[in-house]
Amino acid sequence: MSPSFFEIVQLSNGDYALRRIDDDSAPLVRISFSNEAREMMEDRDMSVAKAMIAAGIEAAGNVTHDIDWEDDELDVSDAQPAYTLH
């Protein structure tokens, strides 16, 4: 299996996305900022998107070993709202 290389790009609608360099399919991650958030970041939105993606990759690496991928008790039909409040 050959290694994958990734890039962070700004999409035509202003969102940021993480995608494989050699693949034109849907991005792996997409980040969208509201106009209010963009104004508060004062043109630092690309830096914030990079930091968010890096933190997500690090967090995924930290929890992957704790997930039981074969857990039969997980039922997608029991899903709660489409958001998580932290």
TrEMBL record:
The entry's protein name is: Uncharacterized protein
According to its UniProt entry, this protein's organism is Marinobacter antarcticus
Specify the taxonomic lineage.
Bacteria, Pseudomonadati, Pseudomonadota, Gammaproteobacteria, Pseudomonadales
